[in-house]
Amino acid sequence: MKIVVLKFGGTSVGTIDRIKKVADIITKYVKKKYKVIVLSSAMSGVTNDLVNKSKKISKNFSDSEYDVLVSAGEQMSCSLIAGKLIDKGYKSRSWMAWQIPIKTEGKHKFSRINEIYKKGILKYLNSGGIPVVAGFQGINYQNRITTIGRGGTDASAIMFAKFFNAEKCIIYTDVEGVFTTDPNKLKFAKKIKVISYEEMLEMASLGAKVMQPHSIQDARLNRIDIEVKSSFINKSGTLITKRKNIINNKIITGISSTQNDAKVTLVGVKDKPGIAASIFKPLSENSINVDMVVQNISANGKETDLTFTIKADDLNKTRKIINENKKINFKSLLFDKNVSKVSIIGVGMITTPGVTYRMFQALAKQKINILVISTSEIKISVLINKKNIKKAIVALHKEFNLEK
Ligand code: ASP
Ligand code: MG
To answer: Residue 163's CB: how many other CB atoms inside 10 A?
Structure first.
């Protein structure tokens, strides 16, 4: 049985007209002899609206009732899709998570799909039906309705592809695919044809909001090919797959940038063992995520400067924690909110020497000063002044031939 999982995001089912278009897309696959499992999000705006309603009832709205409430949007979109398919003469029905069931584990609001009972859906597929399944929701082992985190329909789709051994999982959205850099900010951004899970994870966690990062991680673990494409225009999208499947002569696959970063520097910190731990322990205990870190080599062997980055939102909390930390001594504390992290990402850099140099050289030519550097196997990030982000991305895009 050739199974395909089709996931439709909120904007793809955002209006009645869009839902009719979605039904056309679904039937195209049926005509190609695929057994289609549809996963749908709520119509765009609906989930947010439900979340807001809960806030108006109570500042501490119950987590279990939150899940019942916010999962309601998917019931609406799924029945509309199934209804349209029936209207077109196809056999279709909607399935809520509890009817299948889709079993989840973990806390309310952030549950994880653990297993999907296949029997009912398989029988239905074999009878020629098109199941339209509610994304984002599940049911736990106490029979309570759960949700799996905002944007969770991506993860629902990946899990269906896994459990049903689907040939592919196609994520229909409002963008054409994954781009070399943010196409809303830079016109010359190019659609990436194929990208590895690892690169995609870096792109996603660094700010390219195409898919929910943990669903990409699930796809990677289960080796599921994902195609991301637009439900608005009929064009090929981006394939997210394993590295082995990628024949690519590019060193760099994409460039991403962050906003809302802040840089913190402790000047004149006593240079002795354990000092970094005493600085970062209380930060981590307060859930402050530290990203880039540099420590200067101390000239006199006694004092050093330590710089790190955090989210700008955490700045006040961080300042307070450091000032109240009795375990550390320093001369002064500096903050800079006007910073941004620009990263180049690509598995090609593993086998290509000189990438770091080329990046620094390209930035130097534009007189862009690098404040902090961090690297991983497939990524080089630099912290720069916010005002230079665009200039930096343009220069790097060109340096690594991404427009070709
Ligand atoms: N409707 C849910 C949300 O808006 C789930 C999803 O869109 O995937 O978060
Ligand atoms: Mg959504």
So the answer is: 18
Dihedral sign computed on CA atoms, order 318, 321, 322, 323: positive
> Which pLDDT tens digit goes with each residue over 132-162?
999 999 999 999 999 999 999 999 999 999 9
Q: Which CATH number, 3.40.1160.10, 3.30.950.10, 2.40.160.30, 1.10.730.10, labels domain 3-174?
A: 3.40.1160.10
| Site to substitute for ligand 1 among 40, 41, 210, most atoms within 8 A of C-beta | 41
Q: Is the CB of 151 under 6 A from ligand 1?
A: yes
CA distance 303 to 319: 20
Instruction: Label residues 166-193 b or e (16+ Cβ within 10 Å = b).
Output: bebbbbbbebbbbbbbbbeebeebbbbe
Q: How far is the CA of 153 from the centre of ligand 2 (A)?
A: 8
Ligand 1 in contact with 42 (CB < 6 A)?
Answer: yes
Question: What is the rounded average pLDDT of the residues 187-201?
Answer: 93
**Cβ(364)–Cβ(331) under 8 Å?**
no
